[in-house]
Design goal:
Blueprint: H1 16-23, E1 28-32, E2 38-39, E3 54-58, E4 62-71, E5 85-92, E6 97-102, E7 115-122, E8 128-134
Antiparallel strand pairs: 1-2, 1-3, 4-5, 4-7, 5-6, 7-8
């Protein structure tokens, strides 16, 4: 594995479960055991009712592109070779939205409502980033 020079997530006591699962190719979300609300990013309490009774559930990893942008001018030099690249807000089938990259497709072919599935990119021995690619039956 080559050295990864881009920003790396730093798991903490709230997010460690998410990152441990991602390394095992599992996408987790939180769900409130009191009100049933689901959320992503991980929080120590429910954003809906403020209960601290949140649990981890496994997501299907399937969803659709809610919105996206194509980055032509990266924010820093470490992303220069990636440009152009897509950053999308993906609405998972479980109802939450998460931001990630869209891979496996030319940026100009991406569109809103395109069906996508999660894939994981091992960036270090302990961190795998969830990214999304079009599903096999996505209309390109």
């Amino acid at each position: 594995m080559t050295e990864y020079i881009k920003p790396i997530p730093m798991p903490d006591n709230v997010t460690a479960t998410f990152w441990d699962a991602a390394k095992k190719r599992r996408l987790l979300l939180q769900q409130c055991a009191d009100c049933g609300a689901r959320q992503f990013l991980a929080q120590s309490c429910c954003r809906g009712c403020l209960s601290e009774n949140v649990e981890w559930i496994e997501a299907s990893g399937m969803g659709k592109i809610y919105s996206f942008t194509i980055v032509h001018r990266p924010p820093s030099a470490v992303f220069r070779e990636d440009a152009p690249y897509a950053v999308a807000l993906v609405e998972l089938d479980e109802g939450v939205r998460m931001m990630s990259n869209i891979v496996g497709i030319e940026p100009d072919a991406i569109h809103v409502d395109m069906r996508v599935e999660v894939v994981f990119d091992d960036i270090t021995p302990s961190i795998a980033l969830p990214r999304f690619r079009p599903t096999h039956n996505a209309q390109v």
